[in-house]
Amino acid sequence: MNIRESMEALEEQTLSPYAALSSRTKGRDRPEQLCDIRPEYQRDRDRILHSKAFRRLKHKTQVFLAPEGDHYRTRLTHTLEVSQIARTIAKSLRLNESLTEAIALGHDLGHTPFGHSGEAILDKLCEDGFSHYKQSVRIVEILEKDGKGLNLTWEVRDGILNHRTTGHPSTLEGAIVRLSDKIAYINHDIDDAIRARMFTESQLPAKYTDVLGKSVRERLNNLVHDIIMNSMDKPEIIMSGGMEEAMQGLRKWMFDNVYKNDIPKAEEGKAQQMISQLYDYYMKHVDKLPVEYLLLMVNGGEKNPGWFATT
Questions:
Q1: What CA dihedral angle connects 183, 189, 195 and 201, to 10 degrees?
Q2: What whole-number distance in Å separates Cα of residue 192 and Cα of residue 195?
Q3: Domain 39-310 adopts which CATH fold?
Q4: Fewer CB atoms inside 10 Å of the end CB: C or N, the chain?
Q5: pTM attached to this predicted model
């Protein structure tokens, strides 16, 4: 008995007609023999979970660059929270939970140390610019496994690339992750900011919290319910107008009052200086790079940055 085939048949029978079925994936860049136990998206989820890049997320800070205490989010805990929210939505809508989880676990693999401060300085330093979502795809395609990459399916890579605000994922599972990312970081960053005594829950704008909820728990619950109720049996992932407007308003308020605030950015200058000095050093001393990256350069393992548009 082939367990994978049984699981694929179960997907056909139980998932929504709008779900991305494992048996109908566009496939991988390099064809591989199918697993006798795991469908393709579950296999991708496992590869991401066991990758070096995933383990490195535990050392990357989210918003507060030098937090005091163990309870502030890191890039790893953010990723796990995105995964939990996205899986809840996907399961409720009878979409492919394994594909959703794979995209969620991989969406920030290419993020820099020191959050968006690190990304901003690298974007200035690099000749062709730097974007964490492109770097995430580059990691799974090239940098992991000594230049072999993880050889993930097209749908997972598409979801990772398009999780950004301006992205347009090709699957509903990717669209769920794109929204879940925002839901997660808005709410857990509020929680961290309250822990840092930047403000209290009662100081959040009432015009947003009256719609979204008066606590992190209430907001998460309301947002998830809203997406599920408005997307049920539809070929799109949507929110009600009032809920989406309130979420975007609270997101803007967070940018104005938290992300650009001096408290979480207190160490930004030092962080960006450190990255700048490391960048300059390795550009002048390429031979000091780890052997795996030197081999990538020698063997020409890099692909055209526009590869995905033609895939």
A1: -50
A2: 5
A3: Hypothetical protein af1432 (1.10.3210)
A4: N
A5: 0.93
